[in-house]
Specification:
CATH superfamily of the largest domain: Winged helix-like DNA-binding domain superfamily/Winged helix DNA-binding domain
Distance between the termini: 30 Å
Largest sheet: 3 strands, antiparallel
Structural class: alpha+beta
Strand content: 15-25%
Strand order of the largest sheet: 1-3-2
Shape: globular
Low-confidence stretches: none
CATH topology of the largest domain: Arc Repressor Mutant, subunit A
Number of domains: 2
Length: about 140
């Protein structure tokens, strides 16, 4: 997803287009990795010194609600990244050092369950955590 698509999604849902929301999406796009709310606040405070953690967290929750960001949890902390294409079902390898992700273009659920009888799957999550090549070098 890119910045204009994300902001259009907010606009379609009746939310204001604000500089702070745009900045947050730009940061996700630039970083290309999972970020904590605290990391986002640190990046945002360069341009918005009085910005509160609550404002960042409320916007991240809004972005999550509308599918603008994907959320994972590691070490007891939520981390966010700009969502991939909503039309593409895939999972990720996630580097726990830098937060970078690599898409896995297959779904392990197909091998595990196939189509379960008398049950409609509406969602699932599969992530693999480890260390990317760049982090292993350093």
């Amino acid at each position: 997803m890119d910045t204009s698509t994300a902001l259009q999604m907010l606009k379609k849902k009746g939310y204001k287009y604000t500089g702070k929301r745009e900045q947050m999406v730009h940061i996700f796009e630039r970083e290309g990795r999972y970020l904590s709310a605290k990391e986002m606040l640190e990046y945002m405070q360069q341009e918005y010194p009085g910005l509160s953690f609550d404002t960042v967290y409320r916007n991240l929750s809004l972005f999550e609600q509308f599918g603008i960001v994907e959320v994972t949890d590691w070490s007891g902390e939520k981390k966010y990244r700009l969502a991939c294409s909503p039309n593409s079902h895939h999972h990720h390898l996630i580097c726990t050092d830098c937060g970078r992700t690599t898409a896995i273009d297959l779904c392990p659920m197909n091998a595990i369950l196939g189509e379960p009888k008398d049950f409609q799957i509406t969602g699932h999550k599969f992530e693999i955590y480890g260390h990317c090549g760049e982090c292993m070098k350093s």
